[in-house]
Amino acid sequence: MDRNESGPTPVCTREMHIVNWQDMQISAERARDGDRESLAEVCAGVFPEVLRYARYRVGPSDAEDLAAEVSLRVVRGIRTLKGSFVAWLYRVAGNVVKDHYAARSRRRETPLHELKEDRPGLAEQPAERAIKRMDIETTLTRLSHDHRQVVTLRFVQGLPTRDVAEIMERTPGAVRVLQFRALAALRELLGPEGGMA
Amino acid sequence: MRDEIERAEVLDGCLERINLGENPERVLEEHPDLADEIRPLLALARDLGSLPDPEPSVESLTATFTRLVLAETPQAPVRKRRAFSMRLWARAAAVLLVVLA
Prior knowledge:
The structure holds two protein chains of two kinds. By secondary structure, chain A is mainly alpha-helical.
């Protein structure tokens, strides 16, 4: 972080963006009650979020397939929705990620460290910044499951602590400790020059 | 030396306040004993938030929405209902494509 910067710099820039989860909750409840148009709205609305989550949980090569699988499970399971839609959605997504890793483990594939290839969207970035992003993205794959989950939900997706606590079925205090440990672990893996500051 | 729970609470409090628009260095000034430890974590959190959004391919979107239409279509569909469903999903797919274009 630049210590001389004059203006405030948002940390979780995604906290203020794209999906209005309150509106989405209403649409999801309508979809649960059988409103097909609301179901289409929910799927179209959350797909970019789910794709981003999948991208930073499993890497670019499998992200689209996983996002599609999550969408499918949303359609099939929306009638079982109870309580918070955002928590329900990310629990579904988390289960899809777990299934993905379990299947990969059964196939004995090597871990995903091929992230420097096939990376649409980064070609237009200035080279140095793009390389640092690759470093962060590659290093994310080296975190433990829980650390990667909390980092992705809290900072990549920009969800508030209370939602992450509900998704991960922990107390908010436990999430705060976990995110502290996860950021410290990521920082350690990246080394002193890590990050894009 | 503060314990881990306390440091984690301080980090979360800093994140919260910076997201509300406060200057990171001003926030850190209130925790001089932890500033050196927390500053790089705040920078990392910011970097994670600015990772680029993936760009789904048209082929992938088409495949996804086709699967969703099939999933949503009843096993023995009434012809009229199926046509309605297809139209609805096609519209959702079109909206999504426009949003992501």
